[in-house]
Amino acid sequence: MKDKPGDRGMDEQIDSGWWSRTRLLLVAAVVFLSVSLVLIYQILNAGTATNVDRDRLVISTVEEDLFQEFIQITGSLQPSRSIYLDAVEGGVIESILISSGSTVVKGDTILTLSNSNLRLQVLQQSSGIYDQINQARNARLNIEQNSLSLKERLASAENRYRVSDASYKRQQSLYGEEMISEQEHMEARENYLYRQKQYDLIYKSFRQDSIKSSQQLRQIDESLDRMQQSLGAVQGILDRLVVTAPMAGQLSTADLAVGQSVSSGERIGQIDNLDSYNVRVSIDEYNLSRISEGLTGTTTIGSNVYSLEIERVYPIVENGRFQVDMHFTGEAPGDLRRGQTLRIRLQLGNSSPALLIDRGGFYQQTGGNWVYKLTDNGDRAERQPIEIGRQNPDHFEVVSGLNSGDKVIISSYEPFGENETLNLQ
Question: Are the C-beta atoms of residues 118 and 241 closer than 8 Å to each other?
C-alpha cells in the first residue's frame, strides 16, 4: 500500500547545513568583539603616540668619553701697549707731517700747532724771569764786592798791625838801652795796641761777614737755578705746540686738517705697539667666579689653531658682562689687525671621563629632564627620564637614565606635543 504524500513529509527532518543560526550568531559576536577591541585600543592610544618621519630627526648615540668644560667667547685684538696723543696746549693746526696709519719712530714730529696768545704769555713770563735773574745776579755781585772790600780792609789792617808790631819791638829794644825816651816808647806801645785791636775787630767782622755772605750766595745760587728751570719750563711751553711720537709704532689719528682748532686736552690720536697683541674678551657675569688668571683657550685663524692664556681679569661688571685680557702663548699669528675679532674656546677645567650626548634642540622643550630614547629595533622612540649634569657648547653630561650605546633623538621636540611614543617611519 502506497504511503500518502502528506504522511511522509511529517516524519522527515530537514538538514540546514554548517551555517546554522547558532553558528552565525557566534561568528557575529567574535567579529563584533574584535572590532570593539581595535577601536578601544585606538581610542586609548590616540593621545600618546604619533607617526614621525625618521629622515627629519637628528639621532645621537650616547658615548663614554672625556668631558671638557669650556665656553665659547669672542674677543677683539688690541696692541699690548698703546699711548694716547693728547693736545697739551690748544691751538690751530699749522701743519700735518705724518698721516694716520703711518709707522713712526720715537721723536718723529706728527703735527705742529700755532697759538699767538700763548706765545705772548711765554714772552711776558720769560721777560719777568729774566728780570729776576738779573736782580739776583746783581745782589750776588754786591755781596762779592762787599766781601772783597772787607778782605782789602783786613789786609790793610794786618799790614799796619805787623808794621806797628815791628816798630814797637825796635822801640822797646832801644828803650832798654836808654837810647830813646819813655815818651817815644809809650807812643810806640800805644800805636801797636791800637793796630792790634783794629786788626782783631776787622778780622772778626770779616769772619762774620764771610759766613753770612756764604749763606746768601748759596741761597742766591739756588734761586738762580730755580729761575733757570722756570725759564726753561716757560720756554718749553711752546714746545708743546709740536706733537711728537713718544714711542715707535703705528699712528692712528682722528680726521685732522690744517687750520682746524684743537682744544687743550683734546685727544688727537694714539700710537700702537705692533710687536705684540692682547685679546680683550667680554664674558657673561654668570662665569665670573669660574674665571681666573692662567686659564687657557684656543682660537682658529685660517687652518691653524693658536693657544691663548688669561693674564688679567677685570672684575668690574657692566651691563651683565666683565672683561679679561688674554695673550698668545707660543707662536702668535702673523698679519694681525687691531680690532680683529677672534672666536675663542676657553677651557674652564681639566678633562674627566663622562657619559655624553650631543647638544640639540630637545633641551629647550625638556630642560634636560627627559629624552625620546629609541627602542632596540629602532622602530619606536619612547620617553626616558634622565638627569643632566655639566654641559659645554658641544655636549651634555648624562648623570643618570641612559647607558653608553643608547640612541636618542636630540632635535627639537616641539612638533611632538605630549606624545609618549613616536612611531618612526
Answer: yes
